Amino acid sequence: MKRREFIQGASILSLGALTGCSSTSKTLASDVQSNIIDNAIVLPSSNVHSAQPSIVAWGKKRIGVIKNSDDSFSANILTCTHRGCTLSKAEKNYVCPCHGARFTHQGKLIKGPAEHDLASLDVTVRDQFITIHLPATSDQ
User: Fold this and answer.
1) Which of 15, 32, 98, 134 would bridge with 85, disulfide CB 3.0–4.6 Å?
2) 64 shares its domain with 35
3) Which has the closest alpha carbon to 95: 85, 127, 130?
């Protein structure tokens, strides 16, 4: 095998590996089981805590849900308001892996380059279940 053929083959394999990594990084993990019922996500309230947010999958998006100090709940779509990257959960906030924006677990902007808070969703609690009300129309 000639050196040029080897380099071309290795380049194609590397590109394939990177493409594979890219697609798996878009796989949206959720750490809480939930159900979508009548345009709402329903999950047991016992699965959501105040120390760290729980992540719920919604189509191609993720939603962060956390119990607040006043026993209410906050739910935010984990899409950065700067360029639309999916946020990561950090110890004290959500972080954009693309450009470093940071948001509180309640969705408030801490640090740019984003200029707006995260999109929040209405949450109701009944019995032992949390209902996250989804927008009427979405581009999940």
Assistant:
1) 98
2) yes
3) 85
